[in-house]
Amino acid sequence: MTPRPIRALPVAFAAVLAAATVVAAAPKFTSVWRSSDAGSVSFAGRKIAALVMSQDDSLRIPGEEALSKELIARGLQAVATYRIAPKEELQSAARAKPWFEKANVDGVVVLRPVGRESRTTYTPDMWVSPSYSSFWGYYGYGWGQAYLPGFVDHDTVVVVETTIYSVSRDQLLWAAVSETKDSKSLPAFVQDLVKASVKELQKQGLAKSISK
Fold first, then answer.
1. Which of 78, 107, 110, 161 shows a CA-CA span of 20 to 30 A to 72?
2. Helices 11-20 and 186-203 sit at what angle, rounded to 10 degrees?
3. In sequence order, which residues have a C-beta less than 8 Å from that of residue 175 and are 6 or more positions away?
4. Is residue 5, in this structure, part of any structural domain at all?
5. How many structural domains compose the chain?
6. pLDDT, tens digit, 9 for 90 and up, residues 67-79
7. Is residue 31 part of a domain?
């Protein structure tokens, strides 16, 4: 059965967004999608890879470290993807897959910057397309479309896509688009996004048995 996009945010999640608006640079989730199978998946006790899809190592490496630390702080066994495989091996699904298998990765949390402009419109309807339906299908697509960030000024809107995959099932479990305004730097935005995304991971029940 094909999962349907969630068109209304849960009440608890909406409350989080309302609180986030108090801080000017706080991430705002504009679209959220959840698989109907997500409730049956738990990453507790399993290894999760933290992946930032960007050609900019100054963003990718610190972003993956921050994401893995947030996951570890919540009781998960997480690892930054740059520690799993060399960068040149991560550029294609065929070459990266053996490294993920060797590391016994069961899940992946992906952050992918998709744009920065004064106004950005990003349509998440493609989450139901074949490119998104499996991790390895998305992997090849994601790296091919990875955004290379540049200077971010105060008037910039930065848009980031967050996806959570079960590698063992090769299935998309959760996806969201978030944006921020007046961010001084994209890496700083990713730091905030990491925390917000991991909290949502726990709220959606994808990390059962994690300490709050």
1. 161
2. 160
3. 32, 33, 124, 127, 132, 161, 162, 163, 164
4. no
5. 1
6. 898 888 878 899 9
7. yes
